[in-house]
Design goal:
Layout (H helix, E strand, L loop, with lengths): L4 H22 L4 H22 L8 H21 L4 H9 L2 H10 L3 H24 L8 H24 L1 H4 L2 H20 L3 H22 L3 H21 L2 H7 L9 H19 L9 H15 L3 H9 L9 H9 L3 H18 L4 H16 L10 H22 L4 H5 L3
């Protein structure tokens, strides 16, 4: 039986689509499994490119070309500056955008995009269940669980608020009610994860969404008040259903004395600034051996407490900034300008210029959660599976914006839930 090129391509597209669903779901359960499925996905994508290269056009070109430029410059900077395996570390942390490009190759209509939304919601519920019940179904460490759940919750809250904002046109009260209870369950999971930053990130994301809603609604008072009240209700319930220990932890979020976690970050951030000052143009390199000496010196200089000195100086427990932005600054110097241009200009620009719906808004504000969470956690590199999820949301946002722009499969979009 001889198969035509078109028949082979159809089978490759179907296999690629299924593997992408598995890849996205694996993000919520096992980072090692995500990596293995990612390798298979890369192989399938090469076959797809070989069969259909004439018809493939890169969507989100301005974003992904910027990723590539950052990758090339960062490799050069690390080749010059690192005293360890900085080049390999930098490549590993900054090639994850490639998975987003692959996702765009196979997800090309609203139906497939809808399936990804369902997978994300299902994975989020499973992750929240695992945290609340301390089960062993999810093979992620606790830090990665908290990061992924926070970003996923930002996605679902924005998705819900966007439907709520347009309830008169869409009349999806059943979906609105279901999403409300899903959000409550995910927020309960964040509370049980004991993540103070997760709590602050959700508040920040809802606040930014409110500003966006004001801008989008052109100061429609009823819509603004509706979104404001919905945000207040969900945040109030978030606090109410959280365990007592978490409520006590929240009150220490900005405490800079007698608080090991907060004081440790101040030391790491100072060490990162010192590293940047020592090599402001190209940074000191992306290996732990490049940045750790500056962190240790900062601990010695600040001398905040015996326990902190023991952790930083004797045990050498911390070697980087615990922040994606301070890590960008210390490790790659002025290349941080490229990151900021990409993350805070190009991506928001595409979102704001698109005809938005609940998918676009959910993906964008899930990304906002990631960027806020990255202030105090190294979710770009050291907890890379969280960045994988960010790249998935980014590629979904790009796909949705392209479909809206081309008015692609309008009938499916109208029925989109």
């Amino acid at each position: 039986m001889n198969l035509s090129r078109e028949d082979i391509l159809k089978k490759v597209n179907l296999i690629g689509e299924i593997i992408i669903y598995l890849f996205v779901f694996s993000v919520f359960i096992d980072s090692k499994l995500t990596m293995k499925i990612g390798y298979v996905l890369q192989g399938i994508s090469l076959i797809k490119i070989g069969l259909d290269y004439k018809n493939i056009k890169l969507k989100g070109k301005e974003i992904y070309l910027t990723f590539i430029v950052i990758l090339i410059i960062g490799i050069v900077f690390n080749f010059i500056s690192t005293n360890g395996d900085g080049v390999n570390k930098f490549i590993d942390r900054n090639l994850k955008f490639f998975n987003g490009i692959i996702l765009i190759l196979f997800i090309d209509n609203w139906k497939k995009l809808k399936n990804l939304v369902y997978i994300i919601i299902t994975g989020s519920i499973l992750l929240s269940f695992d945290i609340i019940n301390n089960s062993k179904y999810v093979k992620l460490d606790f830090i990665r669980k908290r990061g992924i759940l926070t970003v996923a919750t930002g996605f679902t809250i924005a998705y819900w608020l966007e439907i709520l904002k347009n309830y008169k046109e869409k009349k999806k009260w059943g979906v609105i009610i279901i999403c409300f209870f899903i959000n409550l369950y995910l927020l309960k999971g964040i509370g049980y994860s004991d993540s103070r930053m997760g709590f602050l990130v959700i508040i920040g994301t809802v606040g930014i969404y409110l500003l966006y809603a004001i801008y989008k609604s052109k100061f429609d008072f009823k819509k603004i008040m509706g979104i404001f009240l919905a945000g207040c209700i969900i945040l109030s319930l978030f606090y109410t259903i959280s365990p007592p220990q978490f409520k006590r932890e929240i009150k220490t979020s900005f405490q800079t004395k007698n608080n090991f976690s907060n004081e440790a970050r101040l030391i790491m951030w100072q060490g990162s600034l010192d590293a940047f000052y020592s090599s402001p143009i190209i940074g000191v390199g992306s290996a732990v051996s490049d940045t750790q000496p500056f962190v240790i010196k900062a601990a010695e200089k600040m001398n905040r407490s015996k326990s902190l000195n023991d952790a930083f100086i004797k045990r050498k427990a911390f070697g980087e900034a615990h922040s994606i932005y301070f890590n960008f600054l210390s490790q790659t110097g002025l290349l941080i300008i490229g990151y900021l241009y990409l993350l805070f200009y190009l991506i928001p620009k595409r979102f704001l210029k698109s005809q938005r719906n609940e998918v676009l808004s959910g993906c964008f504000f899930g990304g906002v959660c990631f960027l806020l969470y990255g202030i105090t956690w190294s979710v770009w590199g050291y907890y890379g599976v969280v960045q994988n999820f960010f790249q998935i949301l980014l590629s979904m946002m790009i796909i949705a914006s392209e479909l809206k722009k081309r008015n692609f499969e309008r009938k499916d979009e109208k029925n989109f839930i």
